[in-house]
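User: Sequence in, structure out. Go.
Assistant: Echoing your sequence, followed by the structure tokens.
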Amino acid sequence: MTSAYLADRPTDAIDAQYVEDAVRDNAWLHFTQMADYRDPDKRPLMIVRGEGSTLWDIDGNAYLDLLAGIYSVNAGYGRRRIVDAMAAQAAQLPYVNPFGYISVPAAVLADRLGDLAPLGGDARVFFTSGGSEAVESALKLAKQYHTINGFPHRWKTISRRVAYHGTTMGALSVNGLTDARAPFGPLAPGARHAPMSHRYRCPYCQDASACTLTCYDEIERLVEFEGPHQVAAIILEPVQNAGGCIPPGSPDYFKKVRKLCDDTGILMIMDEVICGFGRLGTLFASEYYDVVPDLITTAKGITSSYAPLGAVMARKGVADAFAEPATENLPAPVAAARKGGFQHGLTFGGHPVSCAAAIANLDIMLEEDLPGRAREIGQYLRDALEATLGNHPNVGDIRGVGLFLGVELVADRGTKETFRDNALLAWLTDQMRQSGLILRNDSRNDPTTQLCPPLVITREECDRTVAILDETITELGRQLGTVGTRHAAASV
């Protein structure tokens, strides 16, 4: 089949059987057991079109995309302004070597992000082609930064258990998901993991009237145990994705981490790959928590995923250290680290077409105040979830920030008893999809239904989402044996 097969082809003219065969015989889907598709009755969901918050599959079925692609299509589908910007740039200049050269879109985007990022002004921006690469780059940057400053022995990192930070080897090392890490050891040495801040199931204070910040104390103890003079960076998500959309138990959590880093010289990295670009109700998630990290990693929403792009944004004081000259009588590792700036590069970092997409996306974000919309509609959606599901016998917790919300499912609301039935969660996801919702029922900790829609989702679409969740979670309750409760009986 030639490239003409895809060029200007109407979606109703696509040969579905050809695509199915291509998947079965040749494609390799991410995080997917391809053996499942040996069964001719099984096939992946093949999406062919999108508009706003809605997707259509190859059979013409419509779905509300409550996952925004993969936490990433923030401005929504069908944005001609972004597409046109990409096409114009591709026609004029499709590529520039980023090793010592730069395109106009990359320079303009760096200037705008450097001014907007909550890093104290004049941040320097290092472009990558995705989120894992952004985390990988930030970790390397932190380690070289300390070497430049005369501390080559600062190579350890601290992240949190169950946290997701990507899948390249360095990013996977700080990743806190055991199943994701296990097949690939040994990983990069020095990665240490602290408990996550999870108010609903905190082993320290879930029964207290408020967060005691013992979860933060564990980070401090880990720094003390490892030796602060050996720790390069602490990397954290503003709202932890894996494990079920988990914000910190206290608004002071990140501020205490910031002070710890100030006191010890450790670099603070905020991993905003998911939470940045409006998701939490502010352009950058660090702004929501009123904290100034040393480095911010971002991707996904930077282009609303119209093109692959990521970035590491560095505070001026950190970036300026890489311009320090190599002088005489320096230890060999320090002298070597100072010779050529940041010793790292990626062929597609700052790709001109991707940067053009990001500029158009940023214009949309600011002109339409999509962060403000995420704040407003996120509160509307959360209120609707609370009103409809707040007393459901199988809903333990409703949490999140902005348009990044989670509904934790339980077998027993009173005791918080969880359930570990992946087949049942797969069934739940399938039921929701059949009802017209695409979302994730996360089983990487305790089962949590995650809602992370495009920031353009409407109130009517939120109402429809909540109604479907109510129906399907009540059916889940029947399977778990909670039929007969007041809520379940009323929903029959």
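User: And one key feature?
Assistant: The chain has two domains: 45-74+370-491, 82-367.
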